[in-house]
Amino acid sequence: MAHITGGGVIDNVPRVLPEGLAATIERSTWTVPPIFNSHPARGRRPPRGDVAHLQHGGRDGGDRSPDVPSIASAAGIPVWRIGEVIRNRGHGGSFSGERTYPHRGAGVGAGTNLDALLQASREPDFPGRVALVVSNRRSAHALEVALGWGVPAVALPQADFGGDAAARDREIHGRLQAAGVRLVVCAGYDRILSDEFVDAYPDAILNVHPSLLPAFAGGMDAVKRALARGVRITGCTVQLLERGEADGGPIVLQAAVPVEMDDDAAALRRRIHEREWELLPRAVALWCAGRLQRDGTRIRVLPAPAPAPV
């Protein structure tokens, strides 16, 4: 068990995990006490004192940890299952600075998808870099992820603009322009972008959605809807965002995820996220390399150019 305070989840989780293990954490699974959201309004940095309960069999695989959730619940202490410990597949808890590449992108919202994209951008042949991260919530975990990688990040809640979504979008656009952004990536962003904003980035806004579009389009509850309908296969989609129907733009890439009989929303969502971590960086790389060609409502992935003769 680890009681994590002070340095936040990102800084502290890697310190308590044995070699070869990593943790997947769902930022939306616990309730943030109101006090943590009050400090930014007073001009102070948001506290990073999150609490995580991580449980494993110990370094030598011997004695099991006590049933802490049951003990805490019996004592009236709120408990949240926020993730799981997994074998490290390259998405570990260590963070480093960014590299500079010819194309620049901006992540809107995001968290684990942002981390996967930043991880991929460390590869020498990745044709883009994340220049700015924007969130509509000050408590968004993506802001902490971005800072851990040394990427500029900003929260622009709609409330700061008197509830005027168009004004907020104009501010986002101005900041993206100042950062030299050419591609916008939406991952977990739960606001509809204005037509003015979408028009400013024609065929240059990638959106990831946790279903095989056009199934279960619109809204943030696609996983629960898929379970409620009893589908056997679901998955995730990266698409180009455009005006009109929510999640109705042309499909760039998709990945299928089987639905297990004993799945709940959290379990299925975790497996979908794992495919998103693969799909989104690939879609960004294809866009930055100029390998996506639009033909009406369809996207053709062009072959990689032949290497230059030596």
Please describe the topology of this protein.
Layout (H helix, E strand, L loop, with lengths): L7 H9 L4 E5 L8 H5 L29 H7 L8 E5 L15 E7 L2 H9 L7 E8 L5 H9 L3 E3 L9 H14 L4 E5 L7 H6 L4 E5 L12 H8 L3 E8 L10 E8 L6 H24 L3 E4 L2 E4 L9
Parallel strand pairs: 3-4, 3-6, 4-5, 6-7
Antiparallel strand pairs: 1-2, 7-8, 8-9, 10-11
Helix pairs in contact: 4-5, 4-9
Largest sheet: 7 strands, mixed
- What distance separates the N and C termini? 55 Å
The portion of residues forming beta strands comes to 15-25%
- Tell me, what's the shape? globular
Global Rg? 20 Å
Structural class: alpha/beta
In the sheet with the most strands, the strands line up as 5-4-3-6-7-8-9
Provide a compact summary of the structure.
The protein is 29% helix and 20% strand. It is built from nine helices and eleven strands.
Q: Can you describe this structure?
A:
Helix content is 29%, strand content 20%. It has 310 residues and is α/β, with parallel strands linked by helices. Strands 5-4-3-6-7-8-9 form a seven-stranded mixed beta sheet. A two-stranded antiparallel sheet has the order 1-2. A two-stranded antiparallel ribbon has the order 10-11. Helix 7 (195-200) links the parallel strand 6 and strand 7. Helix 4 packs parallel to helix 5 (141-149) and helix 4 packs parallel to helix 9 (265-288). 32% of the residues are buried.
Which labels suit this protein?
single chain, 310 residues, globular, 11 strands, two-stranded antiparallel ribbon, 7-stranded mixed beta sheet, 29% helix
